[in-house]
Specification:
Elements: H1 2-13, E1 32-40, E2 46-48, E3 52-55, E4 60-76, E5 82-103, E6 106-127, E7 130-149, E8 153-157, E9 169-176, H2 196-209, E10 214-222, H3 223-228, H4 232-235, H5 237-252, H6 258-270, H7 273-284, E11 286-295, H8 300-307, E12 313-323, H9 325-331, E13 335-346, E14 349-353, E15 356-363, E16 368-369, E17 371-381, H10 389-394, E18 398-405, H11 408-424, E19 429-434, H12 441-446
Helix pairs in contact: 5-6, 8-9
């Protein structure tokens, strides 16, 4: 706290100095910075972004890792209702960066790095029917205060070197105003540098990172997973069951059989994810795969168009409030080998008439490019479903029908009505929905269009 206060004091003392890069004091970019972070793992995996845009003295936060939600407690309200207390645990690395004390050509930054790792989770019973989770975390924290020149890389070591000599590290680049100076090799692991394919991909990814709404990952992907579309553990699922049976046979049968012995010895390997991953990599080896996460921004469609020019992506995740045909059109041009996830409201509607609606939808079964198709959906109340059958049969490309029940009487008819529609519409997916008891019928019918908003995302 004392160091931060001292740095802020230095910032105020230096406030009268001229700004870098010829910026005027009243310009929109005066006193602003662009900060881009890169994490390098001991296995040479790389994560870059998203870009932070900060004012003088403003603290920015960015993290990389995985989150888990644990039930750590349960409290009771005044009326006796139980309320769960959930803790979201980050396992990975998070940083806080604050630029202070701007000078010509650079600025001082305060960087706080926190590394956290879950070392165990205990489940404890706190009541007759109450169990809570008590996670144990190993947290390591360091603070670095350093003057950095605009456009140059500040490197902060995060641990010991790995077996191949690569040390995990956090790297930062700070630029004045809205400028972004991304080193040309930031998205390419050291082991892949010099490869023409990676160099070409790096140029595209640097353009996407400059938009400020992207995170890029480059990590090892087993060729087995690229070939099969899933990991070795899924292919060996039935073998794992055999190993478990062999273990029981080995324990209770006085006479040992060779096959049972072999399966019993294999059982520890089948239950160890690290061993399976090592075996998977040994079978066919590994490649470097790029994954991109895009968030809502004015440049979202432009970023997807850029990604369509890459030979392939491993994963692509897009989070936006809503999307339309334009975004879907360019997404269908991106070659995604594994997961394509699209979160948001689909507004690619071409026609809505009563209970029917036509909408563009994206299908991705991977690996490869997604398919864009125009399909119809329908929502009908259970008492009107059979009378609507002629119109439903006449609809082209009918993909989904939702049958809605307003009350208990309607709920009792749902199963039979669903069976009738499934026989009459074999190519459509028939699902049901029942409003909660006590809801007014008029209110239910006013919400008739709401069922169209059930989340389709990317259909697999």
């Amino acid at each position: 706290m004392y160091l931060a206060a001292s740095a802020m004091a230095v910032s105020m003392l230096l406030g009268g100095l001229p700004l870098a890069n010829g910026e005027a004091e009243d310009s929109p970019s005066a006193g602003r910075y662009s900060v881009l972070c890169r994490w390098v793992d001991a296995d040479e995996s790389v994560v870059v972004g998203p870009k932070l845009t900060l004012r003088e003295g403003q603290q920015g936060h960015v993290a990389v890792g995985s989150e888990s939600a644990d039930l750590i407690g349960i409290t009771a309200d005044e009326d006796g209702a139980k309320k769960p207390q959930i803790a979201v645990i980050l396992e990975g690395t998070s940083i806080e960066v604050t630029p202070v004390g701007r000078q010509p050509g650079g600025t001082t930054v305060i960087v706080v790095v926190e590394q956290s790792k879950v070392i165990g989770t205990e489940t404890r019973q706190t009541g007759p029917d109450t169990f809570v989770q008590l996670p144990r975390l190993d947290i390591r924290k360091q603070r670095v205060i350093e003057f950095v020149k605009f456009g140059e890389v500040l490197t902060i070591p995060l641990g010991e070197k790995g077996v191949d000599g690569t040390a995990p590290a956090l790297e930062l680049v700070v630029c004045a105003g809205n400028a972004t100076n991304i080193p040309s090799n930031w998205t390419v692991p050291a082991a892949a540098r010099g490869n023409p394919g990676h160099e070409a991909s790096s140029q595209v990814l640097n353009e996407v990172l400059a938009t400020g709404a992207a995170t890029v990952r480059c990590e090892k992907v087993s060729r087995w997973k690229k070939l099969r579309g899933h990991g070795l553990d899924e292919d060996l699922g039935s073998l794992g069951d055999l190993c478990e049976l062999a273990g029981k046979y080995y324990s209770y049968c006085p006479h040992r059989v060779g096959l049972a012995d072999a399966l019993n010895l294999l059982a520890p390997v089948m239950q160890d994810p690290d061993c399976l991953q090592y075996l998977e990599e040994c079978l066919l080896g590994c490649d470097w795969g790029y994954s991109v996460e895009l968030t809502d921004s004015p440049s979202l469609v432009a970023s997807v168009k850029l990604l369509a020019g890459m030979p392939e992506l491993w994963d692509l995740t897009i989070t936006t409030e809503h999307y339309d045909y334009g975004l879907l059109h360019y997404l269908a041009k991106v070659n995604v080998l594994h997961d394509l996830e699209l979160c948001g409201e689909n507004r690619a509607v071409t026609m809505q008439d009563g209970c029917m609606r036509q909408q563009w939808r994206l299908y991705h079964n991977g690996p490869g490019r997604a398919t864009l198709a125009l399909e119809a959906t329908a929502q009908v109340f259970v008492e009107e479903a059979e009378s609507a059958l002629p119109a439903l049969k006449a609809a082209e490309n009918l993909r989904q029908v939702l049958i809605v029940a307003e009350d208990e009487a309607g709920a009792e008819r749902l199963a039979k009505t669903q069976e009738i529609l499934e026989k009459a519409l074999p190519n459509a997916n028939i699902s049901t929905f029942t409003f909660s008891p006590g809801a007014a019928t008029a209110d239910n019918r006013a919400r008739q269009g709401s069922a169209f908003d059930f989340d389709w995302k990317v259909i697999r």
